[in-house]
């Protein structure tokens, strides 16, 4: 890595000639393939922006000029060029390099949110601030993918940039024609027409949409031709108005295994064999997503009214099999979760039952649509929230830790949290039968546990373990049910008797559960969701409203942004494991039992 070893910071790039730059690009690609094949990560997106990122850092002067990466999953090259190459060994691992920009890592990083379609809004704000502060010599460069550009927020920002006409904003459109799969929609078709360039018949090149908004447009430029990108960026930098530089790139460029991958060009890989690109080892066991995927195919065959909606994540959310089995009944709306929800309300108003499959963290973006379009209209539709709870290596903006808190606020909306494959299938079908309200199911990333049999029922809740003495009543929500069950086993060894319930439908909470709580000395809730406003908060309110004063302790995710690590490491870090849960419950019980026993 002769050339790469000479790069400590972006300024070091300025002295390199064309041959050295070509060699550097090759060394960076080799480094990415070697390291990311060992750590896992967004290999394809980063292989696609090697020349682009080199050019940006040669033309602009980071951090005086601010470089923003929309979504941020394609910032590994930026990290290599800003002195972090050696840390790639720990990419996305506990205490290692984040998979996204991180202000704690470098002054060259300024935004950390991994939710798409935000960069142009940051750029608009930054440019206005620099103007008001008289720092008009600072440029703001926003790297935005064609997928991110399908998000509505990006157009809200462009609308404002076109109005404010900041002379120092450069939008680098990284157009590889894909999100995971090929990007969909009219915008994607427009970009394809621009990529194709002027048709021989008519000499006029198609005017870019951006030009109709009053923005300058340069392109299409071959995003892998360093000279061409640098030339375009120099022009953009010197133009006294906002410019969109349309760069055409290939996701996975320079790595045949990625470039030939039909699914998603190695958008996000696990540990792979760098020589072949094949996964080194499976995670073992079935994923929650695959259980949902298979059940949806069956449901689709039984109910012609069931359709599905995805926000540019057909395969990641498990709807690809449904799409293949039931053509024309899956709608990919692009990275547009707000539209996904409200267009689903439209599907429902039209007589269908839509299933909107979305990662829990991205539902945050559609809060108002779920509340005011789905819940207000009591729309029969079903949200299926994958990656709910701690996700792990994608870090704080990817943990799906707020959905239960947000959904609990919504009048009429019903939420289920399956504990295993059998309850996922059952609760999905129960949700699809609801005709007077929206429903939601939520389950975590990773491998689904073996089915956990119930030993009884308590209203709609499953009894998983029954105490002889009504000492501790534990409500284990969804994926936390097996954790609560194991903790109850540890408590039994300590002589503390615990009943374990899986509420199944967490909202509304069944009155029978509230009544049962009155018989116990301590109630405990455990959930893979924020402690604020989650199931625990609702249980507390329902108990007090019912005049039940049994002491209560809620376990969940603290109100903190939690750094990347494996899911298990993050859960251990916040005490959401059986041993620590049992110890905390035992401590609480021994301190409160006398009070509880006297029915205080
Ligand atoms: C709001 C939101 N929805 C979904 C995602 C999941 N996601 C991450 S990257 C990606 C595709 C991005 O495509 P593009 O912007 O074209 O970047 P590329 O990977 O092609 O470089 C998606 C859908 C996200 N990060 N944020
Ligand atoms: C960047 C992004 O939002 C997604 O690509 C995410 O990294 C995928 O996460 P999973 O690996 O859990 O599907
Ligand atoms: Mg793309």
Automatic annotation (TrEMBL):
<dbReference type="InterPro" id="IPR020826">
    <property type="entry name" value="Transketolase_BS"/>
</dbReference>
<comment type="similarity">
    <text>Belongs to the transketolase family. DXPS subfamily.</text>
</comment>
<comment type="pathway">
    <text>Metabolic intermediate biosynthesis; 1-deoxy-D-xylulose 5-phosphate biosynthesis; 1-deoxy-D-xylulose 5-phosphate from D-glyceraldehyde 3-phosphate and pyruvate: step 1/1.</text>
</comment>
<feature type="binding site">
    <location>
        <begin position="114"/>
        <end position="116"/>
    </location>
    <ligand>
        <name>thiamine diphosphate</name>
    </ligand>
</feature>
<comment type="subunit">
    <text>Homodimer.</text>
</comment>
<dbReference type="InterPro" id="IPR049557">
    <property type="entry name" value="Transketolase_CS"/>
</dbReference>
<comment type="function">
    <text>Catalyzes the acyloin condensation reaction between C atoms 2 and 3 of pyruvate and glyceraldehyde 3-phosphate to yield 1-deoxy-D-xylulose-5-phosphate (DXP).</text>
</comment>
<dbReference type="GO" id="GO:0008661">
    <property type="term" value="F:1-deoxy-D-xylulose-5-phosphate synthase activity"/>
</dbReference>
<feature type="binding site">
    <location>
        <position position="146"/>
    </location>
    <ligand>
        <name>Mg(2+)</name>
    </ligand>
</feature>
<dbReference type="Pfam" id="PF13292">
    <property type="entry name" value="DXP_synthase_N"/>
</dbReference>
<dbReference type="InterPro" id="IPR029061">
    <property type="entry name" value="THDP-binding"/>
</dbReference>
<dbReference type="Pfam" id="PF02779">
    <property type="entry name" value="Transket_pyr"/>
</dbReference>
<keyword id="KW-0414">Isoprene biosynthesis</keyword>
<dbReference type="InterPro" id="IPR005477">
    <property type="entry name" value="Dxylulose-5-P_synthase"/>
</dbReference>
<dbReference type="InterPro" id="IPR033248">
    <property type="entry name" value="Transketolase_C"/>
</dbReference>
<keyword id="KW-0786">Thiamine pyrophosphate</keyword>
<feature type="binding site">
    <location>
        <position position="337"/>
    </location>
    <ligand>
        <name>thiamine diphosphate</name>
    </ligand>
</feature>
<feature type="binding site">
    <location>
        <position position="176"/>
    </location>
    <ligand>
        <name>Mg(2+)</name>
    </ligand>
</feature>
<feature type="binding site">
    <location>
        <position position="176"/>
    </location>
    <ligand>
        <name>thiamine diphosphate</name>
    </ligand>
</feature>
<feature type="binding site">
    <location>
        <position position="73"/>
    </location>
    <ligand>
        <name>thiamine diphosphate</name>
    </ligand>
</feature>
<dbReference type="InterPro" id="IPR005475">
    <property type="entry name" value="Transketolase-like_Pyr-bd"/>
</dbReference>
<dbReference type="InterPro" id="IPR009014">
    <property type="entry name" value="Transketo_C/PFOR_II"/>
</dbReference>
<dbReference type="Pfam" id="PF02780">
    <property type="entry name" value="Transketolase_C"/>
</dbReference>
<feature type="domain" description="Transketolase-like pyrimidine-binding">
    <location>
        <begin position="286"/>
        <end position="450"/>
    </location>
</feature>
<feature type="binding site">
    <location>
        <position position="255"/>
    </location>
    <ligand>
        <name>thiamine diphosphate</name>
    </ligand>
</feature>
<keyword id="KW-0479">Metal-binding</keyword>
<keyword id="KW-0460">Magnesium</keyword>
<keyword id="KW-0784">Thiamine biosynthesis</keyword>
<feature type="binding site">
    <location>
        <begin position="147"/>
        <end position="148"/>
    </location>
    <ligand>
        <name>thiamine diphosphate</name>
    </ligand>
</feature>
<protein>
    <recommendedName>
        <fullName>1-deoxy-D-xylulose-5-phosphate synthase</fullName>
        <ecNumber>2.2.1.7</ecNumber>
    </recommendedName>
</protein>
<keyword id="KW-0808">Transferase</keyword>
